[in-house]
Amino acid sequence: MRKWTPAASASSTGCYAHVLADLIGQLGQPRFTSALLEGLNPVVPAASFSIYQTGHSCVPQLFMSGSFGVPDTTRDCWRAYLSGPYLSDQTLVHDSAGDTPLLCHITAQEVPVQHRARVYEAHGVAERVSVVQQTGASLLALNFYRHQHQRPFSDQQVAGFADMAPALLALAKKHIALSSPPPVTDPLAAWQQRLRQLNPALTPRELDVCARLLTGMTQDGIASDLGLSLPSVKTYRNRAFARLGIHFRNELFALLLRSPVVPAVHHQ
What we know:
Strand 2 (48-55) and strand 3 (61-67) form a beta hairpin. The chain has helices spanning 17-25, 32-40, 74-82, 113-120, 155-179, 187-198, 204-214, 219-226, 230-244, 249-258, and strands at residues 2-4, 48-55, 61-67, 102-107, 125-135, 138-147. It has a six-stranded antiparallel beta sheet with strand order 1-4-5-6-2-3, sandwiched between helices. With 268 residues, the protein is of the alpha+beta class. The chain is 43% helix and 17% strand. The chain has ten helices and six strands; from the N terminus they run E-H-H-E-E-H-E-H-E-E-H-H-H-H-H-H. Helix 3 (74-82) runs antiparallel to helix 4, helix 6 packs across helix 7 and helix 8 crosses helix 9. The longest helix has 25 residues, at 155-179.
C-alpha cells in the first residue's frame, strides 16, 4: 500500500482540461456521477467509484457511486463495508497537517482479511486509488476501483490520477454541496427526512413515531408528546416497522445507519 500527498507539477491538470471542463459543467446535475467515472476512464480505467464520508465523529454517508462497463454493485459494497470493516479501517487514515489531501494506492491483498472478503473479493474488486481529506475524526474519500477482469493500474495511470486528485476532490465537494438540500437543524425533522427517503410510503404519524424512537424517547413519552394513546403509538410503530421489514427498535437504528443519504438534486 502506498500513501503520499499530492506534489505540485507544471502539468498537474493541464492535459486533463477537457475532463475537468466537462465535470465543471455538470456540477449539481444528475449526470455528474456518470461524467466523473467515464471522463476519468482514459486516465485511470476504473470499473467503479464511490465518494463517502466516514469516521468516529460522523454517521457514515455514501454521497454517490457508480460503475462503468460492469453491473453496478457499489451500494452492495457500501452495505458490506458498513457490516463491520469500516469500524477498523485504517487504510485511508492519515496524520498530515491541516486539511492536506492524502493519496492512497492499495491492492486487495493488502486489505485486512474481513474487509477484503466482504467488500473486495465478494464484488470482484482488485485494487483502489483514493484521494482523501481528513477533518478531525472524519474523512471524505473519493475512490476509484479496478476490478478483477481489468489489468492492474500502471504507474502512469496512478501518476495521472495523482495529478488530477486535488481538482477532483474539490469538484466532488462542490457537487455534494450543490446537490444536497439545506441542512435540517431540528433532529426530529432530520430523522423524518431520512425515513421518508428510506420508504416514501410511511404515513405522517408513522414518521412522527419512528423519528421519536430514533431520538431515544419511550413509547409512553411519545404518546404524551403526540397526544396519543399508548395503543395508538404501538399501532403506528408496528405499521411502520412492517413497511420497513423490521421488528425491533435496534433494527431501526441499524437500517438508518446502513442506508446512504441520497442528496436531492436541484435542476436548473
